[in-house]
Amino acid sequence: MAAKKPADKPNISKEELLKFYREMLLIRRFEEKAGQLYGMGLIGGFCHLYIGQEAVVVGLEAAAKEGDKRITSYRDHGHMLACGMDPKGVMAELTGRIGGYSKGKGGSMHMFSKERHFYGGHGIVGAQVPLGAGLAFADKYLGNDNVTFTYFGDGAANQGQVYETYNMAELWDLPVIFVIENNQYAMGTSVKRATKSTTLYERGVAYGIPGEQVDGMDVLAVKAAGEKAVAHCRAGKGPYILEMMTYRYRGHSMSDPAKYRTREEVQKMRDERDAIEHVRDLLLNGGHASADDLKAIDREIKDIVNDSAEFSKESPEPPVEELWTDIYA
Ligand SMILES: Cc1ncc(C[n+]2csc(CCOP(=O)(O)OP(=O)(O)O)c2C)c(N)n1
Ligand SMILES: [Mg+2]
Fold this sequence. Notes:
- This protein is α/β, with parallel strands linked by helices.
- The protein has one domain (19-309): Rossmann fold.
- Helices cover 43% and strands 9% of the residues.
- The chain is built from eleven helices and seven strands.
- The strands form two sheets. A five-stranded parallel β-sheet has the order 1-2-3-7-6, sandwiched between helices. The protein has a two-stranded antiparallel ribbon with strand order 4-5.
- α1 (14-39) runs antiparallel to α10 (275-285).
- The longest helix has 26 residues, at 14-39.
- The termini are far apart.
- 47% of the residues are buried.
- Bound molecules: thiamine diphosphate and magnesium ion.
- Residues 23-320 form the Dehydrogenase E1 component domain.
């Protein structure tokens, strides 16, 4: 991974560091709980956890304003929590209950929130990329200054529709930020096995789209890069590409034999580059928080996550009549 070790004394307020810590921890603990519920048979179908990649969405949300939109793939729980969707509604959807964002009929990959401008949750690899450009087109057409964060993976980055979208987005100066979450693997295939040119952001050059590679394990670097990209888009200069160098600790989905990488590789990332530990160190070493302060936050987050699990256990399954609602025909 190209990312280097972040600076020890960044210029950032205590409040913002605490906010980053809280938000990343919420995603991690929520995902751990989802993994447990899956193991207990309470979540069915597909479930792709975001553990390890938390700094990407939390850093970028810190660069966003009200009205900005986001759209992503099936690895979407972190994006939903980071943009302010209710953990109860997300967990209830995972467990197929009526209290979920899609009334329990969508599951992990199919949740939306008009209020929080979250447009899914897409199971078809890469499908969200042209849709993201469409969302940005709508904002441009309406004449506002919103931007759309369009997230996709390193595997999706090899799809043709991504490049058709790059061409149109640059041609029409659409306010879209293409966020490539390069977590090094597409299911069990490493970037190096599937891709000749491994610096994925550089592919924008062919379309005149500027971009850069970012240390996606450093929430401060992510926020700084996000602000730069957002400023570019809001100024009407068209799209921008951010290639986030990140890593997922868990399997591709809940059913993953994990034969394509060693345990040591994963452990090394956890030990040396964990995004939450990084912020924890900044808080403790900078004298912004004590170990007890952080323990109190840990408890607070644990309660929120436990409440979401309780809520989803108590929320009923959708009644049969729901088969006939929210459908086209
Ligand atoms: C069009 C399409 N092809 C194949 C799949 C099966 N599939 C699901 S996820 C995935 C890998 C995608 O990897 P990447 O884009 O790196 O995202 P990540 O899972 O790492 O977040 C594949 C091939 C699919 N869902 N849709
Ligand atoms: Mg990937």
